[in-house]
Amino acid sequence: MEAILSNFRQVSDRFSWLSGKSVGAPTLVLLILALLVVPLPAFVLDVLFTFNIMLGLLMVMITLNTRKPLEFSSFPSVLLIATLLRLGLNVASTRVVLVEGHTGTDAAGEVIEAFGEFVIAGNYVVGFIIFLILMIINFIVVTKGAGRVSEVIARFTLDAMPGKQMAIDADLNAGIIDQEEAKNRRLELTQESDFYGSMDGASKFVRGDAIAGILILVINIVGGLIVGTTQHELGLGEAGRIYVLLTIGDGLVAQIPSLLLSLATAILVTRVNTPESMAEQASRQIADPNAVFIASGIVTTLGLIPGMPHFVFLPLGAAGVGLGFYLRRQAEYEQREAVNAEAIAEVEPANRELNWEDIDQVEVIALDIGYGLVPLANTQSGGQLLTRIRGIRKKLSAELGFLIQPIRIRDNLDLKPEVYQISLHGVVRGSGNVRVGKLLAINSSDMPAPIDGEPTKEPAFGLDALWIEPSQAELARGLGYTVVDPPTAIATHINAVIRESASELLGQDETQQLLDKVATRYPKLVSNLVPDLLPLSTVTQVLQNLLAESVPVKDMRNVIDALTAHAKENQDASHLTSLVRPKLGRLICQPLVDNTGTLTVITLAPDLEKLLESSRAGVETEHITLDPTLANSMIESLRGEAEKIQDSGAAATLVVSPTLRSWMSRFVRVRVPDLTVLSYTEIPDDQRIQVQSSIGGEAAIEGETE
Fold this sequence. Notes:
The protein is α/β, with parallel strands linked by helices. The protein has 5 domains: about 25-275, no CATH class; about 285-345, no CATH class; about 365-505, FHIPEP family, domain 1 (Glutaredoxin), CATH 3.40.30; about 505-585, Helicase, Ruva Protein, domain 3 (Orthogonal Bundle); about 595-705, FHIPEP family, domain 4 (Rossmann fold), CATH 3.40.50.12790. Helices cover about 65% and strands about 10% of the residues. A 4-stranded mixed beta sheet has the order 2-1-3-4, with helices on one face. Strands 6-7-5-8 form a 4-stranded antiparallel beta sheet. A 4-stranded parallel beta sheet has the order 11-10-9-12. Strand 10, helix 25 (about 660-670) and strand 11 (about 675-680) form a beta-alpha-beta unit. It is elongated and about 130 Å long. The termini are far apart.
């Protein structure tokens, strides 16, 4: 039995496309095709004509209650199907009129006969004129206007797409929206452009339908007279009476749905994206008591003029005055309710207890700008600051190995107009001022060529610079200056601050995200480390130690391998960091080698290293007690040798024993910031090394011992 049921499910799955939702549209298309070739009885025509009118009314009602055009994104396709259905009905009714028209005015069904007699009302000329008026209204007024609006909106929508996309990127960079919201907005923007492009084409369907209606009218009248008089031996008057009535009725039955769909098209393309439907929006905006009073007063005045129909103007004016009083009273009531609600909202916070929602958390990274710098962040006016910051975030995240938090940009009225501040965790870590509309020419040589400009300091590194006019840019570049615009200067400063403080930006959440990313490829590697061997806090501290010494955390696999291997021996984060660094030796040395692949280093003399080793407070501590005179002498020597190496174009590197590396790194980090401290174990065995100099010696030891 189970096998039979399984086979039945397999067969039913193969025909799952026959469900109601999937079959509806193909069935309607096949029905339209059948109308073109299969003769239909009069009763079926009555049903289809009635359905066509109901479909037109349905489209109008839907568009009236649509709050934004994209809510009815399928309208262009529905409009095409409805137009084809109406044309198919015209073909089917034309066939019946020409073939069976001689039998009487009910030959094409009761719907066509009823509409024909209602419009004609015994006068064929009047009926024909009314039909032409309906055609003119549909073709010239509604259809042409809707088509023009669709064309303009489609053009403007496509032209505005780049700006809207930049605005989405700006909100994403500023942290206003997240990645998912940005994705949804981009999708909606694409759908909007596709929709208005489709509406521009769909409006042509309606216009073509109106033209086809006029041609079908002429064909039915001429063809009916010819068929009636030649084939069925009817008199010209009798043939005209029958076929004109049927033609007018047929045309009217077709034109009413056509007019409704044209109206629905016009309503949809002229909609403004608001939280309200068109009916709600119009009723709210039109219901102005003052305007109603003025209009009612004018109508009443016209009614008092002798000769005017008083019984029409005066009651209508009185009704307008009553409506005006009602609208005014309603507006006053809504205003009182709004004031009361505002008063309650002001009283409640004063009476309620303080809670955690009242405590604002500081932003991880924030950029405060004066009001004069706001144009730099305005993408609509061509500001490039957000683009530059986005590029900085992307570059730093790739280099450091973890995702940099979004940088919140805020205008701060407390700052001077052209001043900005960079804050980390609510603390100002950098500031500067830029000149909007000018360029920053940074001096890159000791003997700068003279150039007119406002002297200043480059905000990121404190280099001598000038604010110059954009017209001087090429001249400045020719003289050896590095020329950047204000957004680039600010972004460069942000880059420097984040690099210096990278360890402060990595917390346990970022560490967990790093581990989760590694776990997608190496799940066993991560599960063996956290939390079995080390807590998340210790792993975070190790990564922070690496970042504090400009070591990226991109190679998390080797970091985790090293931690897993040594976690059972020691749980101290500083000690574990020293054990992880040799595993990352090639990554650490890579930015320090020159173009020839040589690592230029400074070393400590053996006697100085021995002296520092003996000065350690204990075996388990990295604290060293050092004489100030010796410390100053070491700093001056290291600073001088580092400058010599940097002048030659290489990176200054100090190599010491593993036991001294951590202390020496902290010792020189502030005093000689451009000097990198390595241990012998961190340098790969095949790395080519050139010793620039050796610091220390007997003189240093004697100075210490004395």
